[in-house]
Structures are given as C-alpha cells and as structure tokens.
Amino acid sequence: MSDTSYRAVWDRRSADDLAALEAVDNSGSEVVAQATGQRAANAIAEALALSPEDVILELGCGAARIGRELVGRCKQYVGTDISPNMIRVAGRRLAGHNNVRLEVLERTDLSMIADESIDKAYSVAVLCHMDKEDLFLYLSEFARILKPGGLAYVETWNLADPVGWERWMYEVNFWKRSDHSERKDVARNQFCVAEEFQLYAERAGLDVLTCFRDSPWLQLVVGRDLDAAGRAAHRLRLAEQRSAIAYTPMFGQLFLDCIRVIYGDLHPLTALAKLESLSEFPEARLYHTHIQGLWEQDPDRYGPPPENQVNPA
Ligand SMILES: C[S@@+](CC[C@H](N)C(=O)[O-])C[C@H]1O[C@@H](n2cnc3c(N)ncnc32)[C@H](O)[C@@H]1O
User: How confident is the model at residue 100 (pLDDT cuts 50, 70, 90)?
Assistant: First the structure.
C-alpha cells in the first residue's frame, strides 16, 4: 500500500542523513549537497536582497541543504517541514548556529509563525511535490507571515519549457507502468505554467515582481504590500540581477542529462565526457560533481567509477 500522506513519504525518504540528502537533491552526498546548496543559496540571496538583519523562513527545509548556506547570512533562520525526520537531520546539520528555529508542520499551514513576523521567505523543490490546493494554501500563508514590504522566492516545475516537458514525460511514463489500482504517489512531481503559478500567488494576496521561465523551473519572486515605487525598484533590481538568479539554458540542458543518468537512460561516462568538454562553465562543473556522485553511489548499475576521476573545476 503506498504512503497516503506527505509526512509518511518524506519521513520514509529521510530515515538517516544520507537518505535525506538523496531525497532533497538525488545525490546522497555531502559534497554534492554543499555544491548545489551553495548555488541555490546565492541565487535566493540575490532574489530576496538578503540582509544580515533579516528573519528568513524556509518552507520544506529538508536537510537544510540551502538553509545551512544562508544561516550565517541572516538574523534568524526558521526552517519548517512536514517531516519530523527531515527536521532532525536539519537540526544536526545546523548544529552550532544559535540563530536557528526549526518547526515540524502538522498540516498545510504555518500556524506557529506569527502574522507579519518574517522579512523574507523561500521554498525550493517543495511546492512541486504537493497538490495545487496545498501550494495555494502555503502561498496564502506566506502572504500572512511576511511583514509589509517583505519578499518571497518560490520555485516549481515549468511545463512549458522543453526540458520541463521531458521531465514531466518521465512522470507520465512512470504512471503508465504503475499499478493503477493504487492512488498516485501523493508527493509526486507536479508541474505548472507561469501564468498558473503567478495566478496562485496573486490570488494569495502577493505582488508578483518577476517570474523567470526560460528553464525547467519557474522562479517566482513576490512581495507583500509593496507600493508602486517599491514594486518598480524591485523589478529593476531583479532584471539587473537576472543572471545571478535565473537558471541558464545550459543548466536546464545539463539537468536533462542528469535525469537521464538517474533513470538509467544515459551512462555517466557519456555525461561526464560532455561535461569535461564544457568545463569552463560553472554549470558544467556543478553537474560534474553531481554525476560523479551519482555514479559512485550506483556502481551496481554502471560499474565501478573510474579511479582518479577529477572534477575539471
Ligand atoms: C525535495 S525536498 C527539498 C528540500 C529543500 N527545500 C532543498 O531544496 O534541499 C522536499 C522537502 O519538502 C518537504 N515537504 C513535502 N511536502 C511538504 C508539505 N506538504 N509541507 C511542508 N513540507 C513538505 C519534504 O519533507 C522535504 O523535506
């Protein structure tokens, strides 16, 4: 019988620290989690104009892959998650920081967080793992907990992007082969188009500042109760910082290779050879670390990884 709640799924996937890392970025590796976490944290810090005075909240913090990279750059980090196991792993990975508050969520709300108490909020790889009703409820909670003038950054899958569509077809084909007498996985990947994602945010009471959409991910930056001048200033800032925030087309293409390796459609040797030819690009260096990590964890499928594999970075 499949898991029937978000908590059951994510608790099962995070029984120990390495399993939790595998659940958050498919890697199961501290090295990879730190590399991908740093990239995400830098983009979020730019998107939110993060300041050391900010109280920040992460919805679905998981193993604090991103939180660990931001905790030293803010006044307080509030990590929230539906899975008690994930929160335990996050607590271990954030040990030593005295500005951390962690909260296990009981349902789709942030009721333990006071109204207008958060400067900046974000969520990565979370809203894509729930029903749209829950996505909307969480955005409504962001509108409640953000201070006037506060900002939030949220991501989900972009169905309108060619790589986003290919990623979705993996879900379709998986379901084609699955047992149709059971309900679909409650935490499966769900997809949006930009207009739909923005509509949820607007109806939740948030001001849409921008939605980057040229990659498999929709990256939405929103504000709470901004006046016209504030909205214009943030839109200008986000346009100027776009290259530091938005995923590049190369990032999306290399992501597809990574997915093909994960699903067994591409041998990591082929993927690594391509990445070595692109080693001057930071995206290629990041995926090199990632694919090497995937290979090291799955020698049964791909054979032993070559010795002396060196990241071209
Ligand atoms: C793929 S992981 C991403 C974790 C983290 N945001 C990151 O990028 O490393 C998804 C996380 O969302 C949490 N999650 C899933 N459904 C949730 C829900 N309905 N409410 C709150 N958290 C949820 C899971 O427990 C898990 O930690």
Answer: very high
Ligand 1 within 6 A of 125 CB?
yes
Q: What is the pLDDT of residue 307?
A: 66
Residue 300 has pLDDT above 50, yes or no: yes
Number of H helices, E strands in the chain: 14, 8
In this model, does residue 312 exceed pLDDT 60? no
Tell me how far the alpha carbon of residue 307 lies from the centroid of ligand 1, in angstroms.
Answer: 35
The residue whose two tokens read 């060196």 is 310
CA of 198 to the centre of ligand 1 (A): 21
**Residue-level pLDDT at 313:** 40
- CATH code at 183? 3.40.50.150
* Domain shared by 241 and 261, yes or no: no
257, 148: one domain = no
Query: Domains in the chain: how many in total?
Result: 2
Q: 100 - beta bridge partners?
A: 77
Q: What is the pLDDT of residues 109-155, one digit of tens each?
A: 999 999 999 999 999 999 999 999 999 999 999 999 999 999 999 99
CA 18 / ligand 1 centre spacing (Å): 16
Shortest CA distance to 142 belongs to which of 94, 227, 186, 207? 207
Residue nearest to atom 7 of ligand 1 (CA): 24
The alpha carbon of 82 and the centre of ligand 1 are apart by a number of angstroms equal to: 7
First to last CA, the chain: 45
Residue 21 CB less than 6 A away from ligand 1: no
The closest of 98, 101, 40, 46 to 72, measured between CA atoms, is: 98
